[in-house]
Amino acid sequence: MARMITDKEILVLYYSQQGATRQMAQLIARGIEQVEGARARLRTVPKVSAVCEATEPAIPDEGAPYVELRDLEECIGLALGSPTRFGNMAGAMKYFLDGTGGLWMKHALAGKPATLFTSTGSMHGGQESTLLTMMLPLLHHGMLIAGLPYSEPELGTTQSGGTPYGASHVAGLAGNQPITDAEKKLCLAQGRRLAQTALKLAQ
Q1: Which of 195, 143, 141 is nearest to 10 (CA)?
Q2: Which pLDDT score is estimated for 1?
Q3: Which long-range contacts (CB under 8 A, 24 or more apart) does 132-140 make?
Q4: What pLDDT score was predicted for residue 26?
Q5: CA–CA dist 2, 11 (Å, integer)
Q6: Tell me, what's the pLDDT at 118?
Q7: Which of the residues in the chain have pLDDT under 70?
Q8: Predicted pLDDT at 156
Q9: C-alpha–C-alpha distance, residues 194 and 28, integer Å
Q10: Pick from 134, 166, 174: which is nearest to 31 by CA?
């Protein structure tokens, strides 16, 4: 069934090098679109190079298009995802967020809901610290953080990823571990919860 053009869009913004975070983003987007009246807008950020002459192509070779500031402004909610880098978000995501001062100046994101997701190489590789530090710039923007409640049964039974701060995935040190059933269900649930919250706040 075709979606109405009146569907409100929710931005799913991620950075992914080995593909796990991108797969999580796609699952969260699917969860968003399970909610009537909501549609996901998938976007990514380019890599950051230490070489000043290095540039990324205007259009990524694979995955979602690169994000623009207007994507944040136009959407009614945000799902933000990054792999863990030493217990924090990847530099590429931080670099993009550091450039959103213009939106902060005009309170463009204030009152919109946001949720976070991440992927790590090991079980205790900094998932929770990454999710918590990713919240900080969003709180400065005045966004409302929506986590994952324990009413989702997989949160209490998962043997892999999954936190109350947001969906997570244990990708393995080689980045080749598949997303588990519990992780998939939590990603879908997080997308649905964000969409339901965003639609209520946008009324």
Answers
A1: 195
A2: 44
A3: 132/165, 133/87, 133/88, 133/89, 134/80, 134/82, 134/89, 134/93, 135/165, 137/97, 137/100, 138/78, 138/80, 138/109, 138/114, 140/104
A4: 98
A5: 20
A6: 98
A7: 1-5, 49-62
A8: 94
A9: 9
A10: 166
44 closest CA partner among 67, 26, 28 = 67
**Other beta carbons less than 10 A from residue 55's beta carbon:** 10
203, two tokens = 């009324």
For 8-201, the fitting CATH number among 3.40.50.300, 3.40.50.360, 1.10.1670.10, 3.40.50.12370 is 3.40.50.360
> Would you list the domain boundaries of the chain?
8-201
Instruction: Look at the block and give the residue holding tokens 């080995």.
Output: 18
Residue length, the chain? Answer: 203
- Angle value at C-alpha 84, between 156 and 15, nearest 5 degrees: 105
